[in-house]
Amino acid sequence: MSKRSILTGRIARPQKAVIFGPEGIGKSTLAAQLPAPVFLDTEGGTHHLDVARLPAPKTSADVVAGIAALANEAHDFKTLVLDTVDWLEKLLVEHVC
User: Which residues touch 74 (CB under 8 Å, ≥6 apart)?
Assistant: First the structure.
């Protein structure tokens, strides 16, 4: 192996994380402290937080439209918070089934 094949340093790319825990422990409050967050609040549980939110999704198409808007439109958000993934899963299961 030559030294030219070894890479060092940071690789700039989006970070992914899952915050897991029981209800009421502060997962959403913690996520609100991440860099420039916008919430996709599938559960309706962020009412107590002063955060930016996409329109509450009622269907999987709403979820896709919200994420597509973030991907394709100019904005200052740096973090997408899916709150909560288990409720998001329900919307996706309803669509598939």
Answer: none
Asked, as a colleague might, if the bond just before 84 is cis with ω within 30 of 0, I would say: yes
Position 76 scores a pLDDT of 97
Q: How far apart are CA 60 and CA 85, in angstroms?
A: 12
Q: Rounded to 5 degrees, what angle do the CA atoms 68, 60, 73 make?
A: 10
The pLDDT score that the predictor gives to residue 25 is 95
Mean per-residue pLDDT pooled into runs of 10, the chain (97 residues): 81 91 94 97 93 95 96 96 94 92
Burial class for 40, CB neighbours closer than 10 Å (0-12, 13-18, 19+)? buried
pLDDT recorded at residue 1: 62
CA dihedral for 70, 72, 77, 78, sign (positive or negative): positive
